[in-house]
Specification:
The chain is an alpha/beta fold and 303 residues long. The chain has two domains: 13-159 and 175-214, no CATH class; 217-295, Alpha-Beta Plaits (2-Layer Sandwich). Helix content is 33%, strand content 19%. It has nine helices and nine strands. Strands 4-3-5-6 form a four-stranded mixed beta sheet, covered by helices on one side. α2 packs across α4. The chain starts with 12 loop residues before the first strand and ends in a 10-residue tail after the last strand. One of its GO terms (molecular function) is tRNA pseudouridine(55) synthase activity. Keywords: Isomerase, tRNA processing. Residues 40-204 form the Pus10 N-terminal eukaryotes domain.
Length: 303
């Protein structure tokens, strides 16, 4: 990081050309344009057009492998913890910034930058409240250790935990610096604390993962059972300690048919009561409900 300073001793802010124009302002002193997009101390390269294209391509490939019959998706961006923290650090420590979008939250800038490419790659529209959610999770662990030490030093009481939780996090190697905890502390970061944070440039682009998830579908009905050797739920062959016979139950037979029909990743069968293995279910049948999760095809359910 360059050590050239502003009048009040703050180090030079290293930004990509886009963040410099939108956040800092072209003529603002103490700002340097980085040569590689991922070196930006604010966006970490997430707003680089080539990187956005790479993410959009991954979304398109995901849909080709496992398509949905939806016409629109709702976008959810999970930003790196360090980026969430840095946005507040820069805002508190550099009140002189006067870019055209300096008052716009960084997450909004991200959504605005990604949506056109994602719509093009997916062939879908984007809207709020759809039944299909596209989640893009960005990860950068390069500054996790530094961020944790910084927050522990200035807000030690925020990390006090019960013995049970402390034991769990120590045994699971979980970082105490979670996104929820960081977001809770953002309002407490004042200018004097923000200026102590060292805004180092990343050495690489963030990694990312793409996932689609559809709202569950519930289908109700009634089933009749004419066999005296078919259980309602999975049952072992002869010995209860033996492995269960796959597909040999009412719930499995019903769920498997519906999973295939709607392209669901999982299904859960709930019946109103139950009958013994050797008892038939006649008449109008027994009411049941099936919860289908992450269905890829739901067009047959529309009116």
């Amino acid at each position: 990081m360059s050590d050239s300073a502003l009048g009040y001793g703050a180090p030079t802010l290293r930004l990509c050309s886009l963040c410099r124009r939108q956040i800092a302002g072209e003529a603002t002193a103490g700002v340097e344009t980085v040569s590689r997009p991922f070196e930006c101390v604010l966006c970490l390269g997430l707003l680089d057009q080539d990187y956005i294209e790479k993410v959009a391509q991954a979304v398109g490939n995901k849909l080709k492998e496992s398509p949905y019959d939806a016409t629109a998706f709702t976008l959810a961006l999970n930003l790196p913890i360090s980026q969430v923290l840095r946005e507040t650090i820069i805002k508190r420590s550099r009140s002189d910034l006067n870019g055209i979008l300096v008052s716009v939250p960084y997450k909004i800038r991200n959504i605005d930058a990604y949506l056109p490419k994602l719509r093009q790659a997916s062939g879908m529209g984007a809207a709020l409240g759809t039944d299909l959610q596209l989640t893009i999770a960005f990860e950068s662990e390069e500054f996790t250790e530094y961020d944790t030490k910084f927050l522990l030093e200035h807000f030690p009481h925020e990390f006090q935990q019960s013995r049970k939780r402390k034991h769990y996090e120590q045994s699971s190697d979980a970082s105490p610096c979670t996104k929820i905890k960081v977001e809770q502390m953002l309002t407490r970061i004042k200018e004097d604390v923000a200026r102590k944070y060292v805004l180092s440039s990343p050495s690489r682009f963030c990694s990312f993962s793409v996932s689609f998830e559809r709202d569950p579908v519930f289908i109700a009905g009634r089933y009749c059972k004419f066999s005296r050797s078919l259980p309602q739920s999975p049952w072992s062959a002869e010995d209860k300690t033996a492995p269960k016979v796959p597909g040999n139950s009412v719930s499995e037979k019903v769920c498997e048919l519906m999973k295939v029909k709607f392209g669901a990743s999982d299904a859960r069968f709930v019946a109103s009561g139950r009958e013994d293995l050797d008892v038939r279910m006649l008449g109008d049948g027994r009411p049941f409900t099936v919860e289908l999760r992450n269905c890829h095809s739901t067009s047959s359910l529309s009116g």
